[in-house]
Q: What sequence folds into this?
C-alpha cells in the first residue's frame, strides 16, 4: 500500500507517528499547503525512509491527482479541514485511488425550517457519487476517525454480537480535560466547535427518517467511565447519525456531545451576541481606518491554539456508543467506549489525547484494508465492515476499548 | 451664560433638546469630532438661534481652548467618552472657563493587588489640580450626570434633611428595559459597560478609606420602585464612591449596578474568553492578510447601537440612593430615586430613557450655576452644593424624583 496523507496538522502529524510503528504500507507521502509542516512531520520520524514530504493545495484537484500519480499512491488519506473533503474525494477517484477521511462533506441548513427539517445533510455530496465509485470498483471509506469512525464500529459490533433488536444508538462523547494556566481553553478548534454545535443537530428515527432540532436540544447527564464522571451532553450535528442508519437497524440514532454546562452556556452567549458569525463586521483598524473582520475569527484569536496545549493538559477523553435494546428477550443496555489519557498519549507519541484518538483509527482501518480484512467498493461508512477485526487490531495498537454493561 | 457642549452623541443631543426649552443661557455651541452629528443636533432644534454647530477633536486641548475663546463661552460641558475628560478639563482652565462633566478621569488598577487596593482612582487626576482651579476662582463640577450626579445630590439631601447619622449610603441602579427584536441589546454602550463592570469595584469605609474587591462582588437583590421590581445588583466601580465620602459622613459607601443575572454571566463569559480586551489580536482581514483589531471593538460592532434603540425599547430605568442610619435616635432607611419611562422620554424628547436621564441633570446644574444658586471654586462634586434647589428644579423640568421610606 502506498498512501498519500493530505494534511500535516495535529491529526496528520499524529497519523505519521502511529503509522511509523507499523509495517503494512510501503510508502506514506505527507503533503500540506504549508510545506514546512509536512517536512517537520517527516523529519520527526528519524529516518524512516517510507515517508516523504510534499507541498500541495488541497483545493486543487488536478494537483492532488497528479501527486497521487507521481508517487504511485493507491490510497488518499484526508486529514484536512472538512472544507477540503470534496476536492480531495474527487481527486482520488480521478487518479483511481481509494479514499479515506475522518469527516464528511458539509451540511447546509434547510432554508425555511432549519430546526425541523434537514437541508443538505453531512455526506450528501459524497453519497451522491456512490454509484460511480461502485462502478469503478473503488472504495471510499468515509467518516473513519474516532467520532465518526470508532463510534460507528461500536454500533456495528453491538448489532452483530450484543443485541437481537436495537431501540436506540446514542454516540456519547465526554472528557475531563483541563489546561494549566487557562480559565477557558477548548481542546479542539473553537471555530469547528462553534460550527458543529450551532448547526441544527440531526436525529434519525425509523419511519420518520432524518430530522433536525434546535441547537443544544435534549440535554442529559451522561456518566463517562474511567473516572471522567458525569458530564452534561446535548444533541449536536455529527456524521454518525447520517451513517449508522444506512447499515444498522435501530429505532433511534443520536449524537450527544459532552460539552458540559459551562461550555454550552459560553457557546449560547457567543451566539446571542452574534460573535459566532463568520460574515464580517466593521471595526477600527490599527491606523483608525475601518477594517472588516469575521467575529468568529476574533473569538478564535483570543483563545490559545489547542494543538499547542498538550504539555499543559491533564485528564482523559472518552468516545463511545451507548446502545439500548433486547438480547434473548431481555432488555439490555451497554456503553462501548475508548478512553485516552493525555499523559499517556503525550509520553508515548508526543500528541495530545483528542488528536491522538482521532488519528489512531484511520491507521487501523488502512491496515485492515491493506490486509484485505476490510474490502468493498462504493462510498461506505465504518459500520459497513466487520467490527471484530477492527476492535482487536485497535487493542493490538496498545489502546484497548472497553464495555460497560447495564 | 455661554456654553460649549463637546459631544453630540446620544447624551449630547438630548442635552440640546432639554436645554432648548430653558432660557437661562444665551448661547450653546455644539461641537463633535463628527461635524455632521453636531449639525444634526442643532438642525433638530428648529431655528433656535442660540445653538451653533462646530467640529472639534476633543483630544486637541489647544483647539478646544481656541473654540471656547472664539465663541466667548464661559462654561465647557463635556458629553464625550471618559477618555477625553483630561484634555477637555485642561482646555477649560486654559481658556478660563468653568467645566462640567458626567464621568471623571479614568482609574488604573493597582499593579500588584488589583482586587484589594486602589491604584489610580476615578477622578484622581482631576482632584490633583483642585488647588489650581481654586486659586483661579474657577469651578469644575465633576460627575454631574445622573449617576454620578443626581445620586450624589440625593446623598447630600439625606445628610442635610433626613438623617442625624448615616451608617451606609448605597447607590442602586436598575431597570426593566427590553428591546423588541433583540435577544441581547444593552441600553448603554457595551464598551463602557465592560470598562465599568470589569474594573475592580471600589468601596469606601470610614477608618479604612477606599479599597477594591473582585468584580461582581457582594451580590444582592434590590427591589426597585414603580413596577421595575427585583433585580440582582453587584458592586461596580463608580464615581459616587469616590465623591460622596469627600463631602458627606457615612460609615460605608457603595455603588451597585442592577445588571441582572444574565448580563453578569455574559460579561463574565466575555472576560473568560478575553473578548473584553482592548489590546489587539491578529486575524485575517478582507484580503486574507492579517490585521490587528481590538476584541472589545468587535463585541461592540456585533451589537446594535444603543442610541438607535429608543423606538423599540420598553420599560423604565431607575437611578437612586439608598441610605440607612438614624433620625432622632430611631433607625431609618430610605431610597431616594428618579425613574424615567422610555415611552415618556421618547414621546416628549425623542430620546431613549437612559440617555435622557443622564442628560437632564447637567442642564439643571447649569441653570443653578447660571442663577448663582450653586456657586464655588475648585474641583467639586454635586454633593458639595445644596441639594434642595436642585431637586426642586428637576421637578420643575417635568421629571419628579421620589422617596421610599423603610
A:
Amino acid at each position: 500500500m502506498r498512501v498519500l496523507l493530505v494534511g500535516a496538522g495535529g491529526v496528520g502529524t499524529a497519523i505519521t507517528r502511529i503509522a511509523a510503528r507499523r509495517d503494512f504500507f510501503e510508502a506514506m507521502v505527507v503533503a500540506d499547503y504549508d510545506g514546512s509542516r509536512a517536512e517537520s512531520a517527516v523529519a520527526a520520524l528519524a529516518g524512516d525512509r517510507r515517508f516523504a514530504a510534499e507541498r500541495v493545495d488541497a483545493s486543487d484537484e488536478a494537483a492532488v491527482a497528479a501527486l497521487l500519480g507521481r508517487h504511485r499512491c493507491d490510497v488518499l488519506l484526508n486529514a484536512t479541514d472538512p472544507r477540503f473533503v470534496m476536492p480531495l474525494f474527487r481527486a482520488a477517484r480521478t487518479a483511481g485511488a481509494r479514499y479515506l477521511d475522518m469527516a464528511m462533506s458539509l451540511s447546509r441548513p434547510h432554508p425555511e425550517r432549519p430546526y425541523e427539517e434537514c437541508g443538505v445533510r453531512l455526506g450528501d455530496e459524497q453519497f451522491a457519487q456512490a454509484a460511480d465509485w461502485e462502478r469503478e470498483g473503488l472504495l471510499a471509506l468515509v467518516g473513519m476517525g474516532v467520532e465518526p469512525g470508532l463510534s460507528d464500529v461500536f454500533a456495528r459490533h453491538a448489532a452483530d454480537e450484543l443485541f437481537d433488536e436495537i431501540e436506540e444508538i446514542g454516540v456519547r462523547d465526554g472528557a475531563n480535560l483541563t489546561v494549566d494556566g487557562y480559565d477557558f481553553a477548548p481542546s479542539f478548534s473553537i471555530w469547528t466547535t462553534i460550527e458543529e454545535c450551532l448547526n441544527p443537530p440531526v436525529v434519525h428515527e425509523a419511519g420518520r427518517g432524518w430530522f433536525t432540532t434546535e441547537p443544544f436540544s435534549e440535554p442529559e447527564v451522561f456518566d463517562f467511565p474511567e473516572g471522567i464522571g458525569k458530564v452534561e451532553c446535548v444533541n449536536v450535528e455529527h456524521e454518525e447519525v447520517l451513517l449508522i442508519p444506512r447499515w444498522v437497524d435501530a429505532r433511534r440514532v443520536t449524537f450527544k456531545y459532552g460539552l458540559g454546562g459551562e461550555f454550552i452556556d459560553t457557546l449560547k452567549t457567543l451566539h446571542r451576541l452574534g460573535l459566532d458569525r463568520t460574515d464580517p463586521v466593521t471595526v477600527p483598524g490599527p491606523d483608525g481606518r475601518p477594517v472588516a473582520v469575521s467575529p468568529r475569527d476574533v473569538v478564535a484569536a483570543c483563545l490559545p491554539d489547542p494543538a499547542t496545549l498538550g504539555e499543559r493538559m491533564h485528564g482523559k477523553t472518552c468516545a463511545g456508543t451507548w446502545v439500548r435494546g433486547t438480547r434473548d428477550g431481555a432488555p439490555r443496555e451497554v456503553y462501548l467506549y475508548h478512553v485516552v489519557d493525555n499523559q499517556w498519549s503525550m509520553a508515548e507519541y508526543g500528541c495530545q489525547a483528542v488528536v491522538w484518538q482521532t488519528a489512531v483509527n484511520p491507521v487501523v482501518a488502512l491496515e485492515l484494508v491493506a490486509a484485505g480484512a476490510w474490502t468493498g467498493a462504493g462510498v461506505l461508512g465504518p459500520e459497513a465492515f466487520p467490527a471484530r477485526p477492527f476492535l482487536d487490531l485497535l487493542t493490538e495498537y496498545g489502546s484497548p476499548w472497553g464495555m460497560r454493561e447495564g
